[in-house]
Specification:
about 0% helix; 4-stranded antiparallel sheet; mainly beta; 7-stranded mixed sheet
Length: about 120
């Protein structure tokens, strides 16, 4: 049975850092892309970052480039999102989702989703 579980969210002040984790089970992470999305109140779901199955393709939204770093440890079945220089506009629920091999950025084609972890950046 496939599971994705996010962790690492919390409340920080602007400029702070958080490291999100997406722990997976039930499939071989090596062959799957993991995408981080976020959903903030009153806003549309946004693709934040993605790592493809071979880690050859890394995507970042313009809004997080230079501040967020995605990485994966296939041996630990985990994908990380290091978030630095956090801003209030980064406040959202962050979800990880999976699709075979390639990053697509399309929520409808994601096979499985986690339940999300809340990130709050407060002034």
């Amino acid at each position: 049975q496939v599971h994705l579980v996010e962790s690492g969210g919390g409340s920080v002040q602007p400029g702070g850092s958080l490291r999100l984790s997406c722990r997976t089970s039930g499939f071989t992470l090596d062959y799957y892309a993991i995408t981080w999305f976020r959903l903030a109140p009153g806003k549309e779901r946004e693709e934040v970052s993605c790592t493809s199955g071979d880690d050859g393709i890394i995507y970042y939204a313009d809004s997080v480039k230079g501040r967020f770093t995605i990485s994966r440890d296939n041996a630990k079945n985990t994908v990380y999102l290091q978030m630095n220089s956090l801003k209030p506009e980064d406040t959202a629920v962050y979800y990880c989702a999976t699709t075979p091999w390639m990053c697509t950025g399309v929520p409808m084609v994601m096979d499985y989703w986690g339940v999300g972890t809340q990130v709050t950046v407060y002034s």
